[in-house]
Amino acid sequence: MDAAPVNNVILLADSYKVGHYQMYPPGTTHTYSYFESRGGKFPYVCFFGLQYILKRWLTGPVVTREAVEEAKELYKHALRTDTIFNEAGWNHIIEHHGGHLPLRIKAVPEGTVLPTKNVLFTVENTDPAVPWLTSYIETLLVQAWYPMTVATISRINKQILHHYHELTHENTDKVEFSLHDCGYRGVSSVETAAIGGASHMINFQSSDTVAGTCLLRKYYHVDTVGGYSGPFAEHSTITTWGKETEADGHSHILDVFKGTMVGCVADSYNVWECCDKIFGQKLKDKVLEHAKSGGILSIRPDSGEPSVVVLRLLEILSKHFGVEVNSKGYKTLPPYLMVVQGDGMNYKTMGEVLAVMEENGWSAGCVGFGAGASLLQRMDRDTLKCAYKCSMASIGDKEVEVFKAPVTDPGKTSKKGRLSLHKEDGKYVTLQHGKGDPDTDLLVPVFENGKLLLDYTFQEIRQRAQLSEEDPDIMEFLKACE
């Protein structure tokens, strides 16, 4: 995560920010901005990732003479003039603050789940000489949209899984291992994989995106790992054995990894015959031997219509290995056998698979899922309509409320004045105009003048993000998505 093409904090901003210090009203000494989800696809957000940004980029003496000179030279060419760059302002930060950014940031604790359209963090300058700094840092801080959105999508998936496990399975113990992150290769960079992979691990303990664990170890006090994996086959490990000897490839895997949880991809050629003739007949004794040694076999189809494929494979496997009926009246495979569907999965298609299983009398405990692009990549800043806006400024001896209210899009109307977050009658509410009681404000100081004030552990974030009775009805949400 440190091998970035840009390590200069002055360059972590859109170029047009460089000249903004000259655009504020004369006498401006203080600006105050906030970040929120203005709505979007989901009814709530799971807030995560600000601590990574603060520790990675903003903590400590981040402004240096070398950084100023580098930025001065670059922006001279980018803006085609050497008269815009705020060299004096950045040098002021070096001379008066030792290179530490004179900013105060308050934020909702990471892992908090709250409805959209609430303030998530606020930012303000602490030195009247640099009121422009609050907005300058917007570009970087708004990138909190990504971990927050991944964590939210992941949690929506968790709600769906929990619903069906609670309905059809003996318990919900498997839920946190029922959605595997397969998105490492499908994202735009290693850093994206690290941030997105870590965000998913808030909700699930199953992942192949080891970069996520690396980020958590460095920035969130994880000692071991955030997500677990195992010896799972890919197509090359089966197809190199050849079509006629496909069974030998699967047999070899069961031999090498005896007594463990192994995964075999079954659709290299004919998924129906693989499950029926290879696992159900030719290798049945080996599967049972694997089970006796404590092993679990997960069979992964990777093509076809998911709900059709999963249901048919469950029926084929039950024909050969038997079926039990649990206390809730749903069919289950033996505990050493399961189907893992990874192709084409998102919260909608996963819900469809689980609905078809429930309609046909199958327990959700028989199946696991994997997700890649839909989990880590298929989203943008507008998925949750994330925005960072100025809501208050001090100009001369007056404190003024700042807002936008575009007539062409009322949904972009911004909040006014100082903001605080509270719970009233069990519901989150953002109070504007500085009316909130500081003693009950749920926004807590996390950064001030270059210092990190709170250093959350991943365990407490994960605990904060747990499902609760306050969550909106997930089935109503899915119906609204149809």
What does this structure look like?
By secondary structure, this protein is an alpha+beta fold. The chain folds into two domains: 9-145 and 386-470, nicotinate phosphoribosyltransferase, CATH 3.20.140.10; 149-376, TIM Barrel. The protein contains 17 helices and 18 strands. The strands form five sheets. It has a seven-stranded antiparallel sheet. It has a five-stranded parallel sheet with strand order 6-12-11-8-7. Strand 11 (337-341), helix 14 and strand 12 (367-371) form a beta-alpha-beta unit. Helix 7 packs across helix 8, helix 11 (271-282) packs parallel to helix 13 (306-321) and helix 13 (306-321) crosses helix 14 (347-359). The protein is elongated. The mean pLDDT is 96.
Topology summary:
Elements: E1 28-37, E2 44-46, H1 50-58, H2 65-78, H3 87-97, E3 103-107, E4 113-115, E5 119-125, H4 133-136, H5 138-141, H6 145-168, E6 179-181, H7 190-200, H8 210-219, H9 235-239, H10 246-256, E7 261-265, H11 271-282, H12 284-292, E8 296-300, H13 306-321, E9 324-325, E10 331-332, E11 337-341, H14 347-359, E12 367-371, H15 373-376, E13 386-395, E14 398-401, E15 420-424, E16 427-431, E17 444-448, E18 451-452, H16 458-464, H17 474-481
Parallel strand pairs: 6-12, 7-8, 8-11, 11-12
Antiparallel strand pairs: 1-5, 1-13, 2-4, 3-5, 3-17, 9-10, 13-14, 15-16, 17-18
